[in-house]
Amino acid sequence: MKKIKMTRAQLKQMDVFTFAGRVELKLNRQAGAFLQRRGIVNVAMLLDTNTIYEKDTVWRSLSGLREKLRQAGFERDKREHKFLITTI
After folding, report:
1. Residue pLDDT, tens place only, 31-76
2. 3-class SS at 73?
3. What is the distance of C-alpha 46 from the center of its chain?
4. Is-contact 27 17, C-beta < 8 A?
5. Is residue 37 a contact partner of residue 17, using CB atoms and an 8 Å limit?
6. Is the pTM here over 0.85, yes or no?
């Protein structure tokens, strides 16, 4: 993973697609459609999104993004972020 030199507060304000590009993650169609359907524009909105009721295919398509957010340092605040605590 490419190291991003930003604070977590700055990362939360970053566009989701920009974040994915910075960490060299290519989002598939299902992940992109999920983000557009929910109106998610930045990382903070994504972290506040619960995905437990999504289909398995959508959930799996977001797993790469979930892992990159954990690696970016959001794992410590896992209880605050619904996106990181949901599991299949």
Report:
1. 899 899 999 999 999 888 887 777 888 878 888 888 888 888 777 6
2. coil
3. 6
4. yes
5. no
6. no
pLDDT at 78: 56
**Partners of 42 in the β-ladder:** 15
Residue with tokens 């972290």: 47
Closest CA to 54 of 86, 12, 21, 22: 86
Mean pLDDT throughout 16-28? 89
Query: In the chain, what are the domains?
Result: 8-85 (1.10.150)
**From its phi and psi, is residue 15 left (phi > 0), alpha (psi between -120 and 50) or beta?**
beta
Quote the CA–CA distance of 57 and 3 in Å, as a whole number.
Answer: 29
CA distance 56 to 2: 28
Query: CB within 8 A of 54, min separation 6: which ones?
Result: 34, 62
Predicted confidence at residue 5, as pLDDT, reads 73
Query: Cα 3 from chain centroid?
Result: 16
